[in-house]
């Protein structure tokens, strides 16, 4: 096993353990589908659509039904183990939540999704709250723009 594969396996195991602790704190348990969804997301380290998660799960355990994957993604999102982000034209992607919340930006040309600092819009959120009484939650949507590679090609 390469160092890279070993690191992915450790990340997946840590993610599963973090999820199991959150589930226990809620009086819930780690099920087979939950474990395989978390492992699939940890192995990919990417922002995956629900269909991509279904495919990744099927590679690991073909007995896990599509509906179970969707329910599991919803539950794990509610627990904060998985973060969902709306990108593009209504598409939702999922990834394992890290120890720190972060924001996202998506290139309108190539579709690449970048992780941004969670504090990036803190001042904007404070201003919107002060001026309009609106509590901004930018963590579930991706900011749109153009990545460096696509700008170079223009």
TrEMBL record:
The keyword Transcription applies. It comes from the Bacteria. Keywords: DNA-binding, Repressor, Transcription, Transcription regulation, Zinc. Belongs to the Fur family. This is Fur family transcriptional regulator.
């Amino acid at each position: 096993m390469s160092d890279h594969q070993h690191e992915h396996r450790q990340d997946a195991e840590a993610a599963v353990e973090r999820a199991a602790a959150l589930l226990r704190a809620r009086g819930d348990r780690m099920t087979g589908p939950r474990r395989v969804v978390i492992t699939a997301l940890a192995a990919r380290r990417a922002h995956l659509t629900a269909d991509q998660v279904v495919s990744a799960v099927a590679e690991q355990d073909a007995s896990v039904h599509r509906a179970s994957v969707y329910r599991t993604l919803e539950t794990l999102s509610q627990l904060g183990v998985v973060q969902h982000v709306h990108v593009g034209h209504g598409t939702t992607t999922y990834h394992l939540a890290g120890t720190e919340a972060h924001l996202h930006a998506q290139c309108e040309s190539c579709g690449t999704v970048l992780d941004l600092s969670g504090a990036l819009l803190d001042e904007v959120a404070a201003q919107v709250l002060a001026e309009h009484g609106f509590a901004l939650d930018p963590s579930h949507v991706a900011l749109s723009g153009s990545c460096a590679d696509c700008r170079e090609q223009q």
